[in-house]
Amino acid sequence: MLKGKHIVVGVTGGIAAYKACELVSRLSKQQATVEVVMTEAATSFVNPETFQALSRNPVITSLFQSVKYWEIEHISLAQKTDAVIIAPATANIIGKIANGIADDFLSTMVMASTVPVVLAPAMNTQMYENPVLQRNLELLKSYGYHFVDPCEGLLACGDTGRGKMADPALLEEYLVSLLMPKQDLAGQRILITAGPTREEIDPVRYITNYSSGKMGYALAEMAQKRGALVTLVTGPCQIPVPEVNEVVSVLSTEEMLQAVMIRYEQQDAVIKAAAVADYRPADRAAQKIKKQDDSSMELTLVKNPDILWELGKAKNNQVLVGFAAETENLIENAASKMTRKNLDLIIANDLTQPGAGFNHDTNQVTLLYPDGHSQQIPFGEKKKIADSILDEISRLLDGKIV
Fold it and tell me: Are residues 97 and 202 in the same domain?
């Protein structure tokens, strides 16, 4: 599947460097052109000749080693490749890239790259959980870098926890999906809602929730990559907006309802991933409400329109998908919501699970269907979760067409 693709595998100085041997072997068997760049520290774990034999290409270990051609090699390699994957990605290389430090071949080449860069972190649990490392991860994600998160297990240091590099088979699968995305949704018109809504109390205050929009944005990005014509109706979010066919920015639940309903008839599927405010203030103050001497303040709320219920009522032949973010009775509450709102599929999301729900880059969900059967999607990156959800939506769309 990767025949004709040019992939650079960066290997840094961690005990997981031995796993990169399997990754290079797998990519070579896919008939990709693989070139390996090793940091000096990485050569203490794996001999460069091993990667040379597996990739059938010379291995680069120094910024100043003799070049094969009359060109600036770290620039030319960055320009001719289709993707770069760094596995393992140590805290050191992540920190360098996040802060613009280019002091060896690998970091210099990444600085010159305009192609997707994938990092597979691997390190001690305490290092991975360090707030400085987490800040660097968030910064790189905001710049568009790709990550395959480490898994939990027994680490080389003897600790048990998150920090093991992802399995080479999973890294291979990620690269295939990145470079050779499925086109099973080609031409399908899909509308996705994302993020929170805001209900204004006065000109400076509002009611909202913790939704970051990450799940909805991941769905929009992956649907676009699979060929869909995507409309993203989004509440206010603080993350980069994916490149889709149409982006509609709204603030309130009423605005989101209007934006969705005027486009509903033209859609093949609607995925309502937004976490809208269920209530709004009965009266919005024209001026800022000043603090009073009283010890309390009363705020009267009225119910907002139920967007998903309105869509279910007006559904013609669209595939309608909802989310159920719950803190208790996950399956029962989600199943009830699916029935009441005439859905074809509902994604049940347990907010009490570590690493799942609002503001996380990861999630764990259960898919429920009207016939009563369910399917659990394992814990993972939201983009990976999004792809699994879209697999089911693609199947449902095929059923609608038949």
Answer: no
Q: 267 and 223 in one domain?
A: yes
pTM for the whole structure: 0.69
> Rounded to the nearest 5°, which phi and psi values hold at 268?
-90, -30
- Which domain-ending residue is among 179, 213, 228? 179
Task: List b or e across 251-278, with b for residues whose CB sees 16 or more CB atoms inside 10 angstroms.
Answer: bbbbbbbbbbeebbeebbbbbbbbbbbe
pLDDT over 70 percentage in the chain: 94
Say which residue the tokens 């690269």 belong to: 175
Average pLDDT over residues 279-288: 95
How many C-beta atoms surround the C-beta of residue 360 within 10 A?
A: 16
For residues 361 and 227, state if they share a domain.
yes
288 belongs to a structural domain: no
The two tokens of residue 393 are 């939506």
Of the chain, the percentage scoring pLDDT greater than 90 comes to 75
pLDDT band of 19, cuts 50, 70, 90: very high
DSSP E strands, 182-309:
189-194, 199-202, 205-207, 229-234, 246-249, 269-272, 279-281, 301-303
What's the count of helices (H) and strands (E) in the chain, helices before strands? Answer: 13, 19
Q: Could you tell me the two tokens for 50?
A: 């091993």
162 part of a folded domain: yes
Domain of 47, CATH number, reads 3.40.50.1950
Active site residues: 157
Q: What is the mean pLDDT of residues 304-333?
A: 95
Beta carbons of 32 and 109 less than 8 angstroms apart: no
Are the beta carbons of 274 and 195 closer than 8 angstroms? Answer: yes
Q: Please report which residue ranges of 226-325 form alpha helices under DSSP H.
A: 253-264, 307-314
Smallest Cα–Cα separation from 118: which of 76, 172, 164, 80? 172
